[in-house]
Amino acid sequence: MKNAQLMRSVAFLIILAIQAGALALAETSHSGLDQDGIAEAFGKKGAMIGETYKVTLSRFDLRVNVGAILIKPDFALTSWAGFIKSDDTTLTYGDLALLESETNPVISKLMEKGIEVSALHNHLIHETPRIYYVHFLGHGNEVDLAKGLKEALALTGTPVKSSAAGSAEMKSDTAKKIEEVLGHQGSMSGGILHVNVPRDDIQVKMKDVVIPGNMGMNIALNFQIDGKKAAINGDFMLLASEVNPAIKALRENGIEVASLHNHMLDEEPRLFFMHFWAYGDASTLARGLKAALDQTGVKK
Question: Quick one: which of 17, 239, 256, 291 is 20 to 30 A from 297 by CA?
């Protein structure tokens, strides 16, 4: 009996050791990125989401209104940079939320640091002050890329510091109804419901590197909830054939198109990103977004 118990104990310890070794290996090989180096360069830790290391920076320094609606930073005033490893190099991609006066100094600094600018546009409409978004692409050493981005951010008022992550909130009845209408679940914090709809039907590549969905290759639907009403903003990632059917669906449901543009330079397949805006009954607006989703290849 004692021998049997001893053998079971030894077997259990061996299993634990194997699992621990596998976990350690997974953590080491999960991305191959120098995550500590990126965090040190930015002065803020990011988070590993799948194979992407992502640093997010909210513009808490800004006060932006659309009419009487105060835009919360995590709703539509967020900069971010994603990093993925490809063979012996790193690709960074993301966008920076900027005041008009910050835009060209930042572009110049990105170019100086060898980071390409892939798009410049608005995400909102009717906002005061006007906010611009610079999308960027970079290839090379991840720490060098992070340092270049930090130098660009230093030309802005963007708060760059580690802070406690916002805790998840209980979803309100309004949020639950939105999810029911959309047929997709989201996460809620700070009164904002974020719903990311994957485009599993599309495999996006840049320079033969597969860009994962968690690096912005999805449809982002954001709701700043106000009782039974909500402000909505986000973007649809679309194939060319889907653009005008999706626009038609939004306009038929009273949702404004804020912008239509590219985010990248040489992606395959060619993609278009359409941002939108509306304020009104949350369930009604969710039905309008669902009508636009139904014009895409998103899994029903």
Answer: 256
